[in-house]
Amino acid sequence: MAVDRLVALPWSNVYGLARTLVALGTAGTLAFSSVDTLFRPVALAGDFPSCEGAASAAVFCLAKGDHSGLGWLKWLCVLALLVVAAGWRPRLTALPHAYVSYSVFAGIAISDGGDQIGLVLSILFLLPALGDPRRWHWQAPPSDNGSRARCGWALAGSSGLLMLRLQMSLVYFNACVAKLPHQEWYDGTAMWYWSTNLSFGAPGWLDTLVRPVVSTSWGVALMTWLPLLIEITLAVALLLPRRIRHAAMWAGLLFHFSIGLMMGLWSFALAMAGGILVLCLPSGATITRRRPQSTGDLVADPGESAAVRPPARTAA
Length: 316
What we know:
Structural class: mainly alpha
Region (Disordered): 292-316
Radius of gyration: 23 Å
Order of helices and strands: EHHHHHHHHHHHHHEE
Membrane topology: Multi-pass membrane protein
Number of helices: 13
Keywords: Membrane, Transmembrane, Transmembrane helix
Shape: globular
Organism: Streptomyces lichenis
Helix content: 55-70%
Strand order of the largest sheet: 1-2-3
Domain HTTM-like: 7-284
Number of domains: 1
């Protein structure tokens, strides 16, 4: 029996956990920010929600100018995101997740990089999630017999996750390379400026630990250059052996946790953590198409956890 096609099953708890982290990041932005903070006038940008052009499709435009209505919509979005984070019926929650992420990015006055990457990832999650047959995204990939449509969704989902991986590689490559022309980054002093910044510096309780480190030449150089090393390693993670890739994953997760802790950018940290998981971990099982003389079964490779098997063809 000759093997002529390999398709990876994308429906694993790897992408499930990533969806959860991204959804929690967006939910946190809404839940822990008041309506007056989220929707307010911005100099040179006008009032928010801005309901002009493509931004008019945001859910918050349903209640523009209605303070109480914006509050209700905010909490409905939080509820929808918590359902996504719980992992229930990815097929049904994929589009609401992407729509809420778009509404937040386009509709609030304080959108940042976390909201932007959350939108991008929620869109890239559409292909695997829309074909996900599981009740919960924490469950093992399906192993029951399936149709050719199931195989098509598996291919589409794997393609979506591949695009997500490439997107994350480009994000980290740009994050590293874009810093290099600035003197503060290549001379090793950038983190002194960030850590002492009144808006993005460490909170008081943490500043007592950070300030002595950035006050020394080796300490501030290490805090400046180590993020560059982590970013460029994640940028080429797809080319690295699995053991090194896993080490880079943990370094990246710790790096973004530190950003959340020091700068308070938790939505950004959670969204990037979700992307790192998909970038560095296997996306799922592998299914192999074998064609015997009378059937067209799809069976799993030895050691894999699941397979999709379309019905056998019978001779006329």
